[in-house]
Design a protein that fits this description.
By secondary structure, the chain is of the alpha+beta class. 32% of the residues lie in helices and 22% in strands. It has 3 domains: 230 residues, FAD/NAD(P)-binding domain, CATH 3.50.50.60; 116 residues, D-Amino Acid Oxidase, subunit A, domain 2 (D-Amino Acid Oxidase, Chain A, domain 2), CATH 3.30.9; 46 residues, no CATH class. Helix 2 links the parallel strand 1 and strand 2. Helix 2 runs parallel beside helix 4, helix 2 runs parallel beside helix 8 and helix 10 crosses helix 11. The chain starts with a helix and ends with a helix. Bound molecules: flavin-adenine dinucleotide.
């Protein structure tokens, strides 16, 4: 797309959280909150590899290479890739610009897909010992103020379908597992550039405590998040505002009326986005709002203003927030949706998680897909290393594996995102969800089983929802 291409060297950041050690993302924000995405030019230091020239011959690793893989970024995608690679006996170097535990702007919702992936990683039980809140369903509300709690069945023998856990806590559990298994981990390493050999990525350059360091490996994994250095250098960063969401979040305590369900509210003021309340232990909650950037710009929405307006004045929420206290500042960040496919592998590299634009276009959840991408990437990397061929053709297996897992769900949920833009339809579905056992069953099933999302996005569902008991 010409628009995306033209802007591919610009920053996507819309955040007040960018740390001093961030890559060159210039951030601007209005005094009253997030109003528009401002961008800043980023110098291209290396030429990206030619997208249509897969290497035909197997790569010959240089004898000085110490690692099978460098993983740049220790969030969910990077940590999961490191864990899977290390368990397969490969030497992984894990690098992150921050020191853990560190915060990450997020709703903190850990979905069913994430729970399944944490189990596959062998780390699920670790979360039982840290601060989190188990969740057994979703409460929806519609623009006309109908509130519909949809609960998931509770079973003593099965793990809850999802939970809420502050990212400072959640990411640290994953990161410490990855650190324990990795060959080497460096925190405080700010990746600044990729080392190229022609079209092939062969290493990473960066700064640690003011000194430049370079590392080489057979494969480089870009796990440095939305708008990170690797996606920019490898032409995978897109600025397509129809497939980017802006989100803000903060923490409150003492919010009234919370139960063991996450809350997604299609409030009139927040349309075509949604307002969320995700309960945490001890009466605390992660509260935020998200909207597709093109919609936000079209409607000239100031997300922060809208959120505070809902909390203070909306009849469904003002009483619930009357004794509540905001305990943190409001932070914002971008969510690159998986409805925009980017090139996520090439000669000597793969991109995972937000760096590969993998966030669910309806729910805004990215952790589950980030973990899933870590598994697909590590499987493909291990195979490529074992046959001594890390060419683009060989590593493309990653994209095939990942798409086989998530593509249908992404397509279904992109349809859903379009559907819920209509106020009439939202009022109808949420209204029926409040009364109809059939509608509750379909939604409840979709929370656990991603394949069931297609039922929700099927136009026939609306028809059935109207008449089902
Ligand atoms: C407002 C908001 C709400 C959200 N709510 C949810 C939710 O409730 N549930 C959900 O599942 N998802 C949610 N998401 C999406 C989710 O946060 C991301 O999809 C997820 O964090 C992706 O994981 P990742 O590992 O790819 O990237 P990240 O978690 O962003 O991790 C990237 C890592 O790379 C490091 N890094 C970055 N640049 C460099 C560099 N140059 N050198 C070295 N290290 C670097 C960073 O320090 C960081 O540790 C939300 C996102 C936003 C913005």
């Amino acid at each position: 797309m010409p628009r995306a291409k033209k802007k591919s060297t610009e920053s996507p950041a819309v955040s007040s959280e960018v740390s001093k050690s961030s890559p060159p993302m210039k951030v601007e924000e209005s005094k009253s909150g997030l109003v528009a995405v401002k961008t800043a030019p980023v110098p291209m230091v290396v030429s990206p590899p030619a997208q249509s020239q897969p290497m035909s011959s197997p790569s010959v690793p240089s004898p000085s290479i110490e690692y099978d893989a460098i993983v740049l970024g220790g969030g969910p995608s990077g940590s999961s890739t490191t864990i899977f690679l290390s368990k397969a006996g490969k030497k992984a170097l894990l690098l992150d610009k921050q020191k853990f535990p560190r915060d990450k702007t997020c709703g903190d919702g850990i979905s069913g897909r994430s729970v399944r992936m944490l189990t596959a990683l062998g780390v699920y039980d670790d979360f039982k010992n840290v601060e989190h809140q188990d969740m057994y369903g979703v409460t929806f509300s519609s623009p006309n103020g109908t509130v519909a709690p949809v609960s998931s069945p509770k079973s003593k023998n099965e793990s809850p379908p999802g939970f809420v856990c502050r990212r400072e806590v959640f990411d640290n559990v994953l990161f410490q597992n990855a650190k324990r298994l990795a060959t080497k981990t460096i925190e405080g390493f700010v990746g600044t550039d990729l080392i190229m050999d022609g079209s092939k990525v062969v290493g990473v350059k960066g700064m640690v405590e003011g000194k430049e360091q370079t590392f080489r490996a057979k494969v480089v994994v870009g796990a440095d998040g939305a708008g990170g250095m690797t996606s920019r250098k490898l032409n995978a960063y897109h600025n397509d505002e129809d497939h980017l969401c802006a989100g803000i979040r903060c923490y409150y305590e003492n919010v009234g009326g919370m139960i063991d369900q996450i809350e997604l509210h299609f409030v009139k003021e927040a349309l075509p986005g949604y307002f969320w309340i995700f309960p945490l232990p001890n009466g605390k909650a992660n509260v935020g709002i998200g909207m597709v950037v093109s919609d936000m710009k079209k409607k000239k929405v100031n997300l922060q203003k809208v959120m505070f307006d809902i909390i203070a004045n909306n009849p469904t929420f003002k009483d619930r927030f009357k004794d509540a206290k905001r305990t943190t500042e409001v932070k914002s960040w971008l969510l690159p949706f998986a409805s925009k496919r980017v090139k996520m592998s090439g000669d000597g590299y793969v991109l995972v998680g937000d760096a590969a634009s993998l966030i669910d276009p309806f729910t805004g959840e990215g952790i589950g897909n980030a973990l899933t991408s870590g598994r697909a990437a590590s499987t493909a990397i291990v195979e490529a290393l074992n046959k001594n061929d890390v060419s683009a053709a060989s590593l493309h297996k990653y994209e095939d594996l990942l798409m086989a897992d998530i593509e249908k769900e992404v397509k279904d949920n992109y349809k859903l995102q379009k559907m819920v833009k209509g106020e009439f339809l939202l009022n109808l579905i949420v209204g029926r969800a409040k009364k109809s056992k059939y509608v509750q069953g379909v939604i409840s099933n979709a929370l656990i089983n991603p394949d069931a999302h297609s039922t929700l996005s099927d136009p026939l569902f609306v028809f059935k929802a109207l008449f089902a008991p």
